[in-house]
Amino acid sequence: MIPTQPPRNVTPMGTLEALTHARSLGLSPSAFHALLVLLDDSPIRPTEVAKRTGTSTANVTNMIDRLEKGGWAERHDHFDRRSQYLMPTQKAFDAFHRCIEGKMPEPAHLGDGE
After folding, report:
1. C-beta separation of 45 from 31 below 8 A
2. For the segment 56-108, what is each residue's pLDDT rounded down to a tens digit?
3. Residue of 73, 53, 57 whose CA lies nearest to 65
4. C-alpha to C-alpha distance for 44 and 86, rounded to whole angstroms
5. Which CATH code for domain 16-100?
């Protein structure tokens, strides 16, 4: 099943709002930024996520591992066997829609994120 794409005409979040959303989902600000990149433009290669977030490829690999473990992203290789592509999961799309609708979940306990 292909997840529902988020609307592309959403007003950009401010820094404080993004940090609040990240914490409410139990994600670090950098992981939330990477997730927003995935939501905006997927499938996408990890190297492109690194470029768009200003993060090293090593850090992005670790971040994607955590996003995948948390059920936020999936790796796919069916587009090109030589390279993996990343896609957000339905959980990520649902959380995004809740965030833009102002229906954030209860904040995660400090330390539960990355």
Report:
1. no
2. 988 998 999 999 999 999 998 866 666 789 999 999 988 887 776 665 444 44
3. 73
4. 5
5. 1.10.10.10
- CA distances to 46, 59, 89 from 43, rounded to whole Å, are 10, 19, 11
Domain boundaries, the chain: 16-100
pTM, rounded to two decimals? 0.69
Q: Which ranges of 1-114 does DSSP label H, i.e. alpha helix?
A: 15-24, 29-40, 46-53, 57-69, 90-100
In the beta sheet, which residues pair with residue 73? 88
> How far apart, in whole angstroms, are the C-alpha atoms of residue 7 and residue 11?
10
Read off the tokens for 14: 């401010």
